[in-house]
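Input structure tokens:
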């Protein structure tokens, strides 16, 4: 049997606990034993009680906790060979020859050093009589795997690191709060965010909050008197109607000569030039703290499971891997290549080779910076001479999804900046039918980045019959060259109806872009739609409260979540909350399932379980309703536990969009505007849907998207997240100690 050690090292990050839980449970599930190494590498060096087996239940209830329950530290001793000799000895004494490290580049380097030195240290331990020959022969190599725990998102090779999304939640919330007080007093604020050499948090939070200026280490302001330029932009913003100004400074921000730019310096500059009260907020460790976001819980869980599989399949000569993310897929890359490239970014910044630094950060980072530079402008650029000015209409369709306004804001500003007219159509397709629309001005969307819902209004109307005449007239009279539909399936359907009527109405021969926005995440052509992350966080927050309310009593909750026939929210919230079960329409529900679940709950509560959460998709089964399930569990649970049901309802659709949704909405909008412009200027009339598929953005023709749709069940025929079910199921099993009796199938 393999014995795996797991440790968290370096700075802590929200989601480390989720990763730990996944490592422990996946390890046990795969038949390995898992040992927790407490206090990072120091625990490895000191050994003794700091290296202990950790059980299935030992990681129960930690998914929602920030920080790391096994502690983290910086260890000077581990940096010395002497320290590492003690570390290896401790590993051997505990029979561990596989190590999973959750930490930053320093911690991962440490793991690699230990792996490289293993044979020579083992020889030394043998020669000095600290280990026996049989121990020497039994453990010829150390297998390692790494995951990046760092709020800074500073590692090359992975799109995101454990903790970065939660840190963005903290920052976004703080900046939203600051914006409202700043606007009341017409003040400017300088907000310093963490990130060391990485500008990710500053850049993405500026994008997500609609801040006016951001200073990041990778791309310092490109003019010598950048202070004047920044103040000019802020002044112009005020002149155009903004009541507040927010500047976000990364803690590692520098100017082109490599001199640090401090928040205090920015404050002084603003005060001198804007002649107004300027305040500074240094967010500090708040960014590291608090509960992990839904994304940090699910992502860390997935990489944790993958790290276990990686280490269990490693051999003496396999290259150690870093487990990370590309798009919404888990990836593996050679660990030391990632560390070296990460260091190269730091060197590039130090040597003021900013082009290289930006290149190494990757396409997504560069694109986001480019978008930010446009969005922060107080006024659009002048149109390029000779370029045709297009008229693009934008509308929101289907149910409201948080992030629709963010997408609108980005589309309006990016479109205006390209020199085009942007028409905001009210009330979805009804606005096109009734010619109810207005021309957007730059400042109209000023505060929309953080607003939930849709300011244009949205509904599910799909045009038919006489509507087409009316729409055709509007398009002709307004000379609309392209249409952007931000929404869910009703929007896609409406686009299809126009496409089908093209022969009768030639004015419909314009390019149309569909930007996926639906909390249900049930749109083909896109694996992620805007709004789903916010809905997931809403669910996770609600389940947290429900759990807390029940901590003293022995209770089981049946929680009903939205999604129509699509089980995405149910499954992902099961992963993110550690619920015992998710009922999905895709899988159906049988009496046999319910019988099994009753036994599972009863056995669990008999063995000391205090709380159960079962998540049911709203349409999982027409007859086995939420009420039915609650009644069933209540009846069968007897005195063991009480059952309550909770139908979460519309709170899932509401609230301010999460940073993830705001960033997704902004990047989708950017691509949609580019698409419409290219198509319209080339005289093409493609109708297409945009979306992330795997790790890339794709533009898929609408006809193809329709082919991939299961119209009866209003979801894609193939759903990528269905592959995550075994992981969710595995993590929710109550562990070998009490599910043995459950193994004989009584049916
Ligand atoms: P991070 O992992 O967040 O980058 P540090 O650089 O502080 O944080 O590293 C955390 C710990 O990892 C250090 O205290 C040390 O014990 C170990 N470590 C870091 N770099 C090395 C190295 N080059 N060799 C051995 N151990 C290292």
């Amino acid at each position: 049997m393999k014995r795996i050690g797991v440790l968290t090292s370096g700075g802590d990050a929200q989601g480390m606990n989720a990763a730990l839980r996944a490592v422990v449970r996946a390890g046990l599930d795969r038949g390995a034993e898992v040992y927790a190494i407490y206090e990072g590498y120091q625990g490895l060096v000191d050994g003794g009680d700091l290296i202990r087996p950790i059980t299935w239940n030992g990681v129960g209830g930690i998914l929602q906790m920030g920080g790391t329950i096994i502690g983290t530290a910086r260890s000077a001793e581990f940096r010395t060979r002497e320290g590492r000799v003690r570390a290896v000895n401790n590993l051997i004494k505990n029979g561990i020859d596989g190590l999973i490290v959750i930490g930053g580049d320093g911690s991962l380097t440490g793991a690699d050093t230990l792996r490289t030195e293993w044979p020579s240290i083992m020889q030394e331990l043998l020669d000095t009589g600290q280990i026996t020959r049989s121990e020497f022969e039994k453990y010829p190599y150390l297998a390692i795997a790494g995951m990046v725990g760092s709020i800074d998102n500073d590692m090359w090779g992975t799109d995101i690191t454990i903790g970065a999304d939660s840190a963005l939640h903290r920052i976004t919330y703080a900046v939203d709060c600051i914006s409202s007080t700043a606007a009341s007093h017409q003040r400017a604020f300088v907000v310093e965010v963490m990130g060391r050499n990485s500008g990710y948090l500053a850049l993405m939070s500026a994008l997500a909050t609609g801040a006016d200026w951001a200073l990041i280490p990778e791309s310092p302001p490109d003019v010598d008197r950048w202070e004047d330029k920044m103040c000019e932009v802020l002044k112009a913003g005020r002149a155009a109607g903004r009541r507040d100004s927010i500047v976000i400074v990364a803690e590692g921000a520098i100017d082109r000569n490599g001199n640090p730019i401090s928040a205090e310096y920015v404050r002084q500059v603003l005060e001198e030039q804007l002649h107004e009260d300027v305040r500074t907020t240094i967010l500090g460790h708040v960014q590291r703290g608090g509960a992990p976001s839904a994304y940090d819980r699910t992502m860390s869980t997935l990489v944790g499971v993958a790290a276990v599989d990686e280490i269990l399949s490693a051999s003496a000569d396999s290259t150690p891997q870093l487990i990370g993310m590309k798009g919404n897929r888990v990836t593996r890359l050679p660990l030391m290549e990632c560390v070296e490239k990460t260091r190269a970014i730091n060197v590039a910044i130090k040597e003021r080779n900013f082009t290289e630094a930006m290149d190494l950060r990757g396409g997504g980072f560069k694109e986001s910076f480019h978008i930010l530079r446009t969005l922060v402008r107080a006024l659009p650029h002048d149109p390029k001479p000779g370029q045709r000015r297009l008229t693009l209409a934008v509308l929101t369709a289907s149910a409201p999804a948080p992030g629709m306004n963010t997408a609108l804001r980005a589309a309006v500003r990016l479109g205006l900046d390209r020199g085009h007219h942007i028409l905001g159509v009210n009330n979805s397709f009804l606005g096109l039918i009734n010619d109810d629309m207005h021309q957007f001005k730059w400042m109209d969307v000023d505060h929309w980045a953080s607003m939930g819902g849709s300011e244009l209004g949205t509904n599910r109307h799909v045009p038919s019959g006489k509507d087409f005449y009316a729409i055709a007239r509007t398009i002709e009279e307004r000379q609309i060259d392209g249409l952007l539909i931000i929404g869910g399936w009703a929007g896609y359907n409406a686009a299809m109806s126009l496409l089908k009527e093209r022969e009768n109405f030639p004015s419909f021969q314009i390019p149309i872009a569909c930007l996926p926005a639906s909390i249900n995440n049930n749109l083909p052509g896109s694996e992620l739609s805007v709004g789903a992350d916010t809905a997931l966080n809403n669910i996770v927050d609600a389940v947290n409260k429900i759990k807390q309310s029940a901590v003293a009593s022995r209770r089981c909750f049946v929680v009903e979540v939205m999604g129509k026939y699509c089980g995405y929210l149910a499954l992902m919230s099961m992963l993110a909350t550690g619920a015992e079960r998710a009922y999905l329409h895709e899988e159906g529900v049988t009496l046999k399932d319910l019988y099994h679940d009753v036994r599972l709950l009863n056995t669990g509560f008999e063995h000391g379980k205090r709380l159960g959460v079962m998540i049911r998709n709203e349409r999982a089964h027409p007859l086995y309703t939420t009420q039915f399930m609650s009644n069933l569990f209540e009846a069968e649970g007897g005195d063991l536990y009480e059952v309550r049901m909770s139908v979460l309802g519309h709170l899932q659709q509401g609230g301010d969009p999460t940073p993830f949704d705001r960033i997704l909405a902004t990047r989708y909008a950017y691509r949609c505007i580019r698409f419409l412009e290219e198509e319209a200027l080339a005289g093409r009339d493609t109708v297409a849907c945009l979306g992330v598929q795997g790790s890339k953005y794709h533009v898929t023709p609408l006809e193809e998207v329709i082919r991939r749709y299961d119209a009866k069940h209003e979801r894609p025929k193939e759903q990528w997240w269905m592959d995550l079910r075994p992981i969710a199921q595995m993590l929710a099993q109550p562990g070998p100690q009490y599910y043995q009796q459950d193994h004989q199938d009584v049916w």
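The longest helix spans residues 105-127. Residues 9-11, 41, 74-75, 78-79, 103-107, 109-110, 113, 150 surround adenosine-5'-diphosphate (CB under 6 Å).
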